[in-house]
């Protein structure tokens, strides 16, 4: 049975009577921001994507979860010739409750490589060099000023300085459950916490003095990278002779204003601290194919900032083990 809210949206936008039996609907909701549906309507050749914020009627709904904000970021990227979906429809009423965008075929990168750091060297270098070129263009786009979460259609950040975006890290360190069977280089949890606080304190000067307000995707995991493959084979037949091309970047509900290197830190955490992914990005992201020592340090710090946040809110044995391992990889590399 079709979701009632989705039915109402399709009826309003396409003004046709919809029979459940004629519809193809795939629920692609993954995060905490949007309910996402890929829909094939009988009278359209191409699929469409409908995004409905999960917390739209909640007083605590982040501004960036509003469809109008996501559409504004998508337009900014499209105007700069980035491979992003096209806006088809936006709720014109005051509720700002949905948007419809074009569908980007064919696969999420995560469908090809559920464990990203296990992809072959050839595919890692090819895919992440492509991603480096895309990120370079994204991070060349200025926001409306300020830092952190975007708060209006001009893409202003809510904070006056970049350091404030990371002000909760000391509390997150205090709240995290650390596993010393993983962090064997530390004798006590207090020793580990002291080391992490030192890492944070050493990074504050850079954060405090950072002045460029760049557009940052802030959730560029493999779920949000759309790819195509040639030749046209089943994904379980992929090998090093398969060409994998990035054809789209999706999901802008977490976009922020800040340092573009933050995106690279999020990627580093996503690949469990495997620096070879950053080396691949480096070749097309930088002007001279190499990051400075300061940039490398901040990429690792941004990976740590994301990892410690996730560790501090983890409440399952699986997540605690996962993020302790990622953190340890960041500490020893």
TrEMBL record:
This is Aminoglycoside phosphotransferase domain-containing protein. It comes from the Eukaryota. It comes from Tieghemostelium lacteum (Slime mold). Coiled coil: none annotated. SUPFAM superfamilies: Protein kinase-like (PK-like). Residues 25-271 form the Aminoglycoside phosphotransferase domain.
């Amino acid at each position: 049975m079709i979701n009632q809210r989705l039915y109402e949206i399709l009826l309003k936008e396409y003004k046709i009577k919809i029979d459940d039996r004629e519809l193809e609907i795939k629920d692609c909701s993954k995060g905490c921001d949007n309910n996402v549906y890929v829909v094939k309507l009988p009278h359209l050749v191409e699929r469409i994507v409908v995004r409905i914020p999960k917390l739209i009627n909640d007083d605590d709904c982040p501004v960036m979860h509003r469809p109008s904000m996501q559409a504004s970021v998508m337009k900014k990227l499209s105007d700069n010739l980035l491979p992003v979906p096209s806006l088809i429809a936006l709720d014109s009423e005051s509720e700002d409750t949905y948007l419809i965008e074009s569908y980007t075929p064919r696969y999420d990168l995560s469908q090809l490589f559920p464990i990203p750091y296990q992809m072959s060297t050839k595919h890692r270098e090819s895919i992440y060099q492509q991603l480096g070129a895309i990120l370079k263009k994204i991070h060349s786009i200025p926001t409306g000023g300020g830092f952190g979460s975007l708060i209006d259609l001009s893409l202003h950040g809510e904070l006056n300085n970049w350091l404030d975006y990371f002000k909760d890290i000391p509390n997150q360190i205090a709240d995290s459950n650390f596993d010393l069977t993983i962090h064997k280089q530390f004798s006590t949890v207090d020793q580990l916490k002291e080391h992490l606080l030192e890492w944070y304190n050493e990074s504050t000067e850079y954060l405090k003095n950072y002045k460029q307000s760049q557009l940052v995707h802030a959730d560029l995991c493999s779920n949000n990278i759309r790819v195509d493959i040639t030749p046209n084979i089943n994904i379980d037949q992929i090998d090093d002779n398969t060409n994998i091309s990035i054809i789209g970047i999706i999901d802008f509900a977490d976009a922020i204003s800040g340092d573009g290197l933050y995106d690279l830190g999020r990627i580093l955490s996503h690949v469990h601290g495997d620096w070879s992914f950053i080396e691949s990005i480096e070749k097309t992201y930088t002007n001279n194919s190499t990051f400075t020592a300061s940039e490398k340090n901040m990429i690792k710090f941004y990976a740590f900032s994301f990892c410690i946040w996730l560790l501090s809110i983890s409440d399952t044995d699986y997540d605690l083990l996962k993020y302790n391992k990622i953190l340890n990889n960041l500490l020893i590399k």
